[in-house]
């Protein structure tokens, strides 16, 4: 029945095609709908004629590919040093098959930087297809080790790497310690130490840190071919300690003298640091009555003891002149510095002295003068630190420290021009931190 209807429809369409022009126009308009009607006019499962199929295979000629393995070809390869690596294992990953080169690198003192490979750093090598070493580059800190083939010999040299300086901005919050907080936001320990040094005259990082304290920093990082190689100077920083905000901006005047100031131009450095150690803990404070653990008697303790591992660096708390260096009774190895005629600072129980320490030598605040030890009358490694005014003992943790010299008026305009963009970067870091907290 459906086939008969389709035949009748075909006859009517044929008549229209042979009719007048207006009928052909009408056909053009109706043809799409007729197709639809015809399509719907075929019942499901209708058997139609089978279409014949055939496979045609044609050979296509391709252009010839370049022949690899040319003896004159060479490649630069790079490998990242992993824990436990030796120079032999790294050369294998670099596909270097050059026994003579390996022997030169293992036996030549000029290549000593390769004896102790540091995980995370990279080695780049220029080799032939056969694995012969043509050149090698290894960045050791800011020094670049170069190995180049000249004829049959390998020439080894080392020099300063070409570096570019980039600014980094980070902020964080104290949960346990300053080091843990800086690690959490990807800041190096070198930056943490600079932050502690900059604010050490206002914040005692041994006792004053609080959970929830916040910090922000803008600092330099040096890069070589996109790889960070060294942390540079802290340029600006902010520290919020127990709700009080401290800010610092680095400024170097045209005479080459540099220091940290508040954004308003006030010198944040005091004449004396609060502590001669970067990080430690107070094991015994200033008191007029203390039971001495060695002498087993009650006596005054007119200084502060800082417990720290043997060898920890001890710094001069102020500019001064060495008045005494050597051994003295219960102090053991002792350094005495005189500052501004009436102040002296004493550093006892040292394990040793910094090179060049001698009476009459001038030192600058922050200079290393010795190392923590347990010489003299001491139960363990620690620094005994005293602060005296006209030879009268003062509590170093409580005495009012005199300020450092202020910013010179002739440098004010240059300071403001330098400080403005650094202060703006600090504000940006603070804004990002506040947005993240919300």
What's this model, at a glance?
With 438 residues, the chain is an alpha+beta fold. It has seven helices and 23 strands. It has three domains: 74-160, Nuclear Transport Factor 2, Chain: A, CATH 3.10.450.350; 164-270 and 405-438, Roll (Nuclear Transport Factor 2, Chain: A), CATH 3.10.450; 281-394, Glucose Permease (Domain IIA).
Describe the structure using short key phrases.
single chain; 438 residues; alpha+beta; Nuclear Transport Factor 2, Chain: A; Glucose Permease (Domain IIA); 3 domains; eight-stranded antiparallel sheet; five-stranded antiparallel sheet; 23 strands; 22% helix; disordered C terminus
Average pLDDT, rounded to a whole number, is 79
What profile does the largest beta sheet have? Answer: 8 strands, antiparallel
Detail the poorly predicted runs: 31-41, 288-292, 434-438
CATH class of the largest domain: Alpha Beta
**What's the total count of β strands?**
23
Write down the secondary-structure element order. Answer: HHEHHEEEEEHHEEEEEEEEEEEEEEEEEH
Task: Determine the CATH topology of the largest domain.
Answer: Nuclear Transport Factor 2, Chain: A
Number of domains: 3
Q: How many helices?
A: 7
Question: From the helix content, strand content and strand pairing, which structural class follows?
Answer: alpha+beta
Beta-strand content: 25-35%
As a percent range, the share of helical residues equals: 10-25%
Q: Tell me which CATH architecture of the largest domain applies here.
A: Roll
Euclidean distance between termini CA atoms: 76 Å
Q: Could you tell me the radius of gyration in angstroms? A: 40 Å
**Globular, elongated, flat, extended or rod-shaped: what is the shape?**
elongated
């Amino acid at each position: 029945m459906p086939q008969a209807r389709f035949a009748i429809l075909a006859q009517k369409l044929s008549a229209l095609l042979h009719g007048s022009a207006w009928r052909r126009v009408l056909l053009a308009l109706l043809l799409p709908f007729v197709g639809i009607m015809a399509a719907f006019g075929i019942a499901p499962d209708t058997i139609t004629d089978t279409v014949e199929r055939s496979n045609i295979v044609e050979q296509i000629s391709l252009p010839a590919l370049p022949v690899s393995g040319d003896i004159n070809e060479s490649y630069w390869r790079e490998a990242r040093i992993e824990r436990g690596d030796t120079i032999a294992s790294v050369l294998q990953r670099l596909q270097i098959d050059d026994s003579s080169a390996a022997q030169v690198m293992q036996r030549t003192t000029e290549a000593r930087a390769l004896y102790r490979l540091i995980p995370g750093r990279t080695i780049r090598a220029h080799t032939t297809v056969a694995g012969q070493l043509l050149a090698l580059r290894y960045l050791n800190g800011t020094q670049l080790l170069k190995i180049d083939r000249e004829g049959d010999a390998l020439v080894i040299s080392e020099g300063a790497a070409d570096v570019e300086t980039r600014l980094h901005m980070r902020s964080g919050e104290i949960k346990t310690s300053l080091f843990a907080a800086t690690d959490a936001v990807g800041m190096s320990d070198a930056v943490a130490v600079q932050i502690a040094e900059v604010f050490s005259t206002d914040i005692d990082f041994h006792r004053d840190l609080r959970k929830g304290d916040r910090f922000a920093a803008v600092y330099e990082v040096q890069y070589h071919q996109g790889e960070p190689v060294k942390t540079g100077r802290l340029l600006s920083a902010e520290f919020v300690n127990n709700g009080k905000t401290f800010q610092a901006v680095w400024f170097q005047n045209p005479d080459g003298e540099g220091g940290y100031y508040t954004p308003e131009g006030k010198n944040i450095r005091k004449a004396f640091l609060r502590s001669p150690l970067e990080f430690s803990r107070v094991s015994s404070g200033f008191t007029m009555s203390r039971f001495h653990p060695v002498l087993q008697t009650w006596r005054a303790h007119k200084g502060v003891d800082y417990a720290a591992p043997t060898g920890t660096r001890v710094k001069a708390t102020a500019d001064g002149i060495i008045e005494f260096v050597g051994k003295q009774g219960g102090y053991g190895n002792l350094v005495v510095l005189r500052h501004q005629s009436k102040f002296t600072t004493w550093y006892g129980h040292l394990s040793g002295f910094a090179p060049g320490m001698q009476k009459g030598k001038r030192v600058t605040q922050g200079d290393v003068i010795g190392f923590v030890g347990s010489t003299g009358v001491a139960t363990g490694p620690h620094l005994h630190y005293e602060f005296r005014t006209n030879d009268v003992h003062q509590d170093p943790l409580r005495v009012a420290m005199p300020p450092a010299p202020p910013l010179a008026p002739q440098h004010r305009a240059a300071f403001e021009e330098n400080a403005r963009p650094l202060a703006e970067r600090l504000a940006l870091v603070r804004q990002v931190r506040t947005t993240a907290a919300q």
